[in-house]
Design goal:
326 residues, alpha+beta, Pseudouridine synthase, 3 domains, 3-stranded antiparallel β-sheet, elongated
């Protein structure tokens, strides 16, 4: 099936009663149902020569014909942003995202994002959802660094999206947290939803919390800190940050989810308050890094694992903790 161009589909007896958009999405697997519904609404497809709505119920004799239009340019500007490319082929690009880089344009960030940089870097984009843009299938917070995969065309985007939805993606992070963590490994399964008061935050105490599971194990233990290897089984917003805070071991440098009195408590209990404060002040962001990402390649079906080395700022802080003996 060509990525774009004229298409003809014929409903079979087993398709009787199916929604038009559902049937078409099942046949044109390179595209999402929402994109197909949009094309139907924009009158790119007809049933037996007549315009129908996406919710039209098929008859077994129906013939659907139309054209998938070529992708159109988007208003976003391509920008020559320095990117650390771990892997690239005709279907995907894998990036080691630097801290401070926003993934996708949004209110307050209409430029200088990873998407702007990829528009400049990738000259072979085939289009996502009818637009010439890279396909973002998952995100990292602005101040979280590490491994991120992006699709170059609709089929790769749909394939990767299904992997994330079906929890077939291996996601491992490194998190430097406060406190001496015990036991050496564990799982936290508290649900996560919007904070009941502060709508900009997430919380384990929410009226509409969704299931969330985070597995962790100690990678390096110190007196007042611990480096955790964290495995995500779900992908809720701020999941690791919220779960670590709920464990009473918030991520170092996280200004949103750490208790306000935490630093004072740590300094008061330590015999090396100045050195502790030195460490805390040197953390300009949450010390969270997307270390390893395992996916199935959307074209070859080969299992691939990508790793991003520990960023310099995290590495320096860990080295200081070791040297000082904290």
């Amino acid at each position: 099936m060509p990525a774009n161009g004229a298409i003809t589909l014929r409903a079979q007896p087993s398709d009787e009663g199916k929604r038009l958009d559902v049937f078409m999405a099942s046949q044109l697997t390179a595209y999402t149902r929402s994109f197909i519904a949009r094309l139907i609404g924009e009158q790119h497809f007809r049933v037996n020569g007549q315009l129908k709505k996406p919710g039209y119920r098929l008859k077994s004799s129906d013939t659907i014909s139309g054209v998938i239009p070529p992708p159109v340019p988007i208003e976003l500007k391509a920008e020559a942003i320095s990117l650390n490319i771990l892997h690239e082929d005709d279907h995907i690009v894998v990036v080691n995202k630097q801290p401070g880089l926003v993934v996708h344009p949004a209110a307050g960030h209409d430029g200088g994002t990873l998407v702007n940089g990829l528009l400049y870097h990738c000259t072979d984009l085939k289009g996502i959802g009818g637009e010439l843009r890279p396909g973002i299938v998952h995100r990292l917070d602005k101040d979280t660094s590490g491994t991120l995969v992006v699709a170059k065309h609709d089929r790769a985007h749909a394939h990767l999206s299904r992997q994330f939805k079906n929890r077939q993606v291996q996601k491992e992070y490194l998190a430097l947290v406060h406190g001496a963590v015990t036991p050496p490994s564990g799982t936290i399964t508290l649900p996560i939803g919007r904070h009941p008061v502060d709508r900009k935050r997430m919380s384990t105490v929410s009226l509409r919390g969704r299931t969330a599971e985070t597995q962790w194990k100690i990678k390096a233990a110190f007196r007042f800190f611990a480096l955790l290897a964290v495995m995500l089984k779900t992908g809720r917003t701020h999941q690791i940050r919220v779960h670590c805070a709920a464990m009473q071991h918030p991520i170092v440098g996280d200004r949103v989810y750490r208790p306000r009195k935490l630093e004072k408590t740590i300094v008061r209990e330590s015999r090396q308050p100045e050195k502790i404060l030195q460490i805390l002040k040197s953390a300009k962001r949450q010390m969270l890094h997307a270390w390893r990402l395992g996916i199935t390649h959307p074209q070859s079906d080969k299992r691939m694992v990508f790793e991003s080395p520990l960023p310099e700022d995290m590495n320096q802080i860990i080295q200081k903790i070791r040297e000082i003996g904290l």
